[in-house]
């Protein structure tokens, strides 16, 4: 894409602030990750006005979400508890902590009320930026908390920012050429995290299936196995009796670039049948090689099937506006590498995967390679050709059903 000197470049809205970075860096599961993410992006020059000739970055501070905005999905009881600083002490009533999921993998911590407001508000701020005619892509790396439920925290996720963003996008309409009626715009949520997007999928399961004009589709690519978090019947391959607008594509251990390249055709076919106006892309990076989860063997890029290759196709080959969110990723330097690389893709000037990490305060954490790439390891890919064929057959039926429903 090119623009003449007289035309303003399209905007990539990058939602960030010192306040958001500090609050996100307190998250017990990802201590200081937010600081690494944003400082690496800055040190690589991504925030410079001249980084790209085709798109320009706009640094957008998040608006803190108000109670009413959070309450549009979360229950009043949950918000009353989690937003009250007095409840963040270890002396809080154990029964309430259990009821609201604020223990085990979601412990309370000082700063949690601000974290919930800021992360929820950050993803909503990104959605608001997409109303700007010049803004094609909005990025919120501190968002993507896809396990949070309506009335309780879960899986390191305290606020359902993905769900709040999707609810906000569902309210977007497009005036008809005649001006008499408006068309409700379609949104596709695509989740690349290692873990199933249970919070999002549960929130919208069957809501489009009962509509005469479906306008929201959720699609999660993830690992699923007995005992692997989160357990949900929605995490399995779709059957002809399932909701075709709430989709899952489970992969076995060791999923590599080869496997992602092979199954990406299913993603493209679903996208073509649904033809969304907006794409919300949850870019969890806990499937990258080297993550402590040690389940997938995905590399960063740019080879066919890599994380960067998949995201590039969404950003640069699919029509419509895109919202990019963060998610899992427990090797913080690798998460920073990945999201810096994806940001450069969104800006239309992909960094070389061999780019040297610049000298900056967190430089030593990028040892031993000190380059951008996150290479694949030696893990065996257990996604056999027979299993991949089973996936293809399941999505044959899904795509046919979606195509039929979209023309009814």
From TrEMBL:
<keyword id="KW-0378">Hydrolase</keyword>
<dbReference type="InterPro" id="IPR000286">
    <property type="entry name" value="HDACs"/>
</dbReference>
<dbReference type="InterPro" id="IPR023696">
    <property type="entry name" value="Ureohydrolase_dom_sf"/>
</dbReference>
<dbReference type="GO" id="GO:0040029">
    <property type="term" value="P:epigenetic regulation of gene expression"/>
</dbReference>
<dbReference type="InterPro" id="IPR037138">
    <property type="entry name" value="His_deacetylse_dom_sf"/>
</dbReference>
<dbReference type="GO" id="GO:0000118">
    <property type="term" value="C:histone deacetylase complex"/>
</dbReference>
<dbReference type="InterPro" id="IPR023801">
    <property type="entry name" value="His_deacetylse_dom"/>
</dbReference>
<comment type="similarity">
    <text>Belongs to the histone deacetylase family. HD type 1 subfamily.</text>
</comment>
<feature type="domain" description="Histone deacetylase">
    <location>
        <begin position="28"/>
        <end position="344"/>
    </location>
</feature>
<protein>
    <recommendedName>
        <fullName>histone deacetylase</fullName>
        <ecNumber>3.5.1.98</ecNumber>
    </recommendedName>
</protein>
<dbReference type="GO" id="GO:0141221">
    <property type="term" value="F:histone deacetylase activity, hydrolytic mechanism"/>
</dbReference>
<dbReference type="InterPro" id="IPR003084">
    <property type="entry name" value="HDAC_I/II"/>
</dbReference>
<dbReference type="Pfam" id="PF00850">
    <property type="entry name" value="Hist_deacetyl"/>
</dbReference>
<keyword id="KW-0156">Chromatin regulator</keyword>
């Amino acid at each position: 894409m090119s623009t003449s000197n007289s035309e303003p470049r399209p905007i990539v809205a990058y939602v960030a602030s010192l306040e958001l970075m500090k609050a996100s860096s307190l998250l017990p599961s990802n201590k200081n990750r937010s600081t690494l993410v944003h400082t690496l992006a800055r040190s690589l020059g991504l925030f410079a006005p001249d980084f790209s000739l085709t798109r320009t970055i706009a640094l957008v501070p998040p608006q803190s979400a108000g109670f009413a905005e959070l309450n549009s999905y979360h229950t009043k009881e949950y918000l009353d508890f989690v937003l009250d600083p007095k409840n963040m002490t270890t002396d809080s009533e154990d029964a309430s902590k259990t009821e609201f999921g604020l223990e085990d993998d979601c412990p309370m911590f000082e700063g949690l009320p601000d974290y919930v407001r800021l992360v929820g508000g950050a993803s909503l701020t990104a959605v608001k930026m997409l109303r700007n005619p010049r803004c094609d892509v909005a990025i919120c790396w501190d968002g993507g908390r896809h396990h949070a439920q309506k009335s309780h925290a879960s899986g390191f996720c305290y606020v359902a920012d993905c769900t709040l963003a999707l609810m906000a996008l569902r309210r977007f309409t497009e005036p008809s050429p005649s001006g008499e009626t408006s068309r409700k715009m379609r949104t596709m949520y695509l989740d690349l995290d290692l873990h199933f997007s249970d919070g999002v999928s549960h929130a919208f399961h069957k809501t489009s299936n009962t509509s005469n004009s479906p306008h929201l589709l959720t699609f999660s690519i993830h690992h699923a196995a007995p005992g692997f978090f989160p357990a949900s019947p929605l995490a399995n391959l779709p059957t002809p009796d399932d909701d075709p607008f709430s989709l899952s594509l489970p992969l076995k251990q060791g999923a590599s670039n080869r496997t992602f390249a092979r199954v990406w055709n299913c993603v493209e076919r679903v996208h073509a049948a649904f033809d969304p106006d907006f794409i919300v892309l949850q870019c969890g990076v806990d499937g990258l090689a080297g993550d402590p989860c040690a389940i997938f063997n995905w590399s960063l890029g740019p080879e066919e099937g890599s994380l960067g290759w998949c995201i590039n196709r969404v950003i640069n080959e699919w029509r419509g506006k895109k919202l990019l969110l963060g998610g899992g990723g427990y090797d913080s330097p690798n998460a920073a590498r990945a999201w810096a690389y994806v940001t450069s893709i969104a800006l239309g000037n992909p960094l070389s995967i061999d780019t040297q990490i610049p000298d900056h305060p967190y430089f030593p954490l990028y040892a031993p390679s000190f380059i951008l790439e996150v290479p694949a390891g030696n893990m065996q890919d257990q996604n056999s050709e027979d299993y991949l064929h089973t996936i293809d057959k399941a999505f044959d039926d899904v795509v046919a059903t979606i195509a039929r429903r979209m023309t009814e």
